[in-house]
Write a structure and sequence with these properties.
Blueprint lengths: L1 E6 L9 H10 L7 E7 L1 H6 L4 H20 L4 E5 L6 H12 L1 E7 L4 H16 L3 E5 L21 H14 L16 H5 L23 H5 L4 H15 L3 H4 L12 H5 L5 H11 L9 H22 L22 H9 L5 H13 L4 H13 L5 H11 L5 H12 L14 H8 L4 H6 L14 H4 L2 H6 L9 H13 L4
Parallel strand pairs: 1-2, 1-4, 2-3, 4-5
Helix pairs in contact: 4-5, 6-13, 9-12, 12-13, 13-18, 15-16, 16-18, 17-18
The structure holds flavin-adenine dinucleotide (FAD).
């Protein structure tokens, strides 16, 4: 009987627990084979607002994965399943066809994905197929660290302290999993047809906009590329991460998010590299390294939240009473925000970076999100959805966590009365205006003094010549309105 490795958001060979388990399971008998599967599920992707940039990134990475798997004589089978609910049945059908008795996969923690996997488990049981789901997305799997009361942490700092203590005292959590063992050549004769699957360049409904082809240049595919980035970042930038991360015009962060979100590289591989560079310290030591590790811990925090509070996967705020906030239904304002035409240069630069490159700087994400929620009073879920539909690194836990943090509806969120002033954020995080100049060409000739708020800084006649919109709202007025709405939200 054979084995099947079902790849999902873990498109890598190295440090892949499920893949390793699947391959070592076979080692005991040479007449058994390991097959790999990837399911193209357009309906599911549509319902989860997967961005075309992400699908394009997956397909490019799948091609790389397929090459590396074929060096190990492991065929990568591609199945397209139109209806999400049919995915488990199609996996079972494939198992029957290939005489597979054991399926391995890494767990995805979102509610719909867990439901899909539970359905697979039930169907498999009836067909005498064993299925093993393994924890691979986090270094510390959800449930392993809890508060004194035995509950999921809802505040980041105690979570982080506990996470660091736990990993320090179980340092083998940073040991990488061995590489998988391949199949013997015989599989090529016995199952030649399984090597014939092609990975499409794109699929209907997820076509990459021609204007955003820079996405492919900015984020080349493959595990070696992810490790090259990590290596360069750790060698050259991580030491200054602490100060550089908030400067919008500087590439001070790792830009690894698409690779981490699609599992081209694991969180463990990232943290291990940083830990070693920090002379085997997770906290303290080099301040830049310690800060960067903390960001990966934020990622783990949001995953633990998904598992502990699954209602966040169901379009509900973490703090349930926050569903009572009265939002503005202003389609025109929302459209202007999406297009980067709000008249607030820093907000527009962020949105245009997203639209033009499929990625956005973290500080810009915070500024535009806060602006949508607290200057336009538009429901954060609309922004969350727009981000997912455009981000190459779209990741439900991080995106939902980030949006709820900005909207003050989440676990350990910003208090509602903390409202970014977009102009002072701009002066602080883009002091020379270089980020704005890059993404908002109408303003490229303005001085670093005028660029942050040209409507106020320039004479009206000069402003008109720019061809740049006037601010759609007055920040000071909206701030008061927002405080009022949030203060009076009914519990
Ligand atoms: P680095 O600064 O180099 O950090 C390394 C890694 O740590 C990142 O790749 C990411 O995996 C993780 N990380 C960093 N910051 C955070 C954070 N605040 N929360 C959770 N994990 C973090 N990140 C996504 O991966 N996908 C998303 O869809 C996403 N949506 C966001 C939406 C909003 C409104 C906000 C405020 C943040 C969002 N983030 C998201 C988090 C963060 O903005 C990105 O992870 C980061 O900008 C990616 O750049 P980087 O890889 O250079 O990060």
């Amino acid at each position: 009987r054979n084995c099947l490795m079902w790849f999902r958001t873990d498109l890598r060979i190295k440090d892949n627990i499920a893949l390793y388990q699947a391959s070592s399971f076979l080692n005991t008998s040479t007449d058994n084979y390991l097959f790999a599967l990837y399911v193209i599920s357009p309906e599911e992707w549509k319902s989860h607002d997967v961005a075309p940039a992400r699908v394009d990134f997956w397909f490019r990475n799948l091609k790389e994965l397929k090459k590396r798997l074929s060096e190990l004589n492991i065929p990568l089978i591609i199945q397209t399943v139109d209806l999400a609910r049919n995915v488990p049945a199609s996996v079972i059908e494939l198992c029957e066809k290939l005489n597979v008795s054991h399926v391995f996969a890494n767990i995805e923690y979102e509610v719909d994905e867990m439901r899909r996997d539970n359905r697979l488990l039930n169907m498999a049981r009836k067909n005498s197929i064993s299925v093993q789901f393994l924890h691979s997305q986090c270094i510390v799997e959800p449930g392993m660290i809890l508060t004194k009361e035995g509950k999921t942490y809802t505040i980041y700092t105690p979570f982080k302290n506990s996470w660091i203590k736990f990993v320090e005292s179980n340092i083998s959590l940073l040991d990488l999993v061995s590489d998988p063992v391949g199949n013997s050549d015989k599989i090529l004769e016995l199952y030649p047809e399984t090597f014939e699957f092609n990975i499409p360049d794109s699929i209907p409904g997820f076509d990459l906009d021609v204007s955003s082809t820079c996405i492919q240049t900015n984020f080349p595919a493959g595990e070696p590329e992810a490790h090259r980035r990590l290596g360069q970042f750790v060698a050259n930038k991580i030491g200054r991460y602490n100060e550089a991360r908030d400067v919008l015009s500087r590439n001070g962060s790792s830009s690894l998010s698409p690779y981490i979100a699609s599992g081209i590289i694991s969180a463990r591989q990232c943290v291990l590299k940083a830990y070693l560079a920090n002379r085997k310290k997770l906290s303290r030591g080099n301040i830049g390294i310690a800060k960067w590790i903390e960001e990966i811990v934020w990622r783990e925090f949001y995953r633990h939240i998904l598992v502990g509070f699954p209602h966040v996967c169901k379009n509900q705020p973490f703090k349930l009473h926050m569903s009572n906030i009265r939002w503005n239904e202003n389609e025109e304002y929302f459209r202007r925000w999406c297009q980067g035409k709000t008249g607030y240069p820093i907000v527009d630069a962020g949105m245009r970076q997203l639209n033009g490159s499929g990625w956005m700087h973290n500080r810009a994400r915070m500024i535009v999100a806060m602006f949508l929620v607290k200057d336009l009073l538009i429901d954060w879920r609309k922004g969350e959805k727009y981000f997912m539909n455009h981000l190459i690194d779209g990741d439900f836990a991080n995106n939902n966590g980030g949006w709820q943090w900005c909207a003050s509806t989440g676990s350990d969120a910003q208090p509602y009365f903390r409202i970014f002033n977009p102009t002072s954020q701009s002066q602080k995080c883009d002091p020379n205006g270089d980020y704005i100049r890059k993404w908002v060409p109408e303003l490229k000739n303005l001085s670093s003094l005028d660029i942050h708020d040209p409507f106020k800084s320039l004479p009206r006649s000069e402003f008109k010549k720019l061809g740049y919109p006037e601010p759609i709202v007055d920040h000071a007025v909206m701030r008061v309105e927002t405080l009022n709405r949030f203060r009076h939200v009914k519990r």
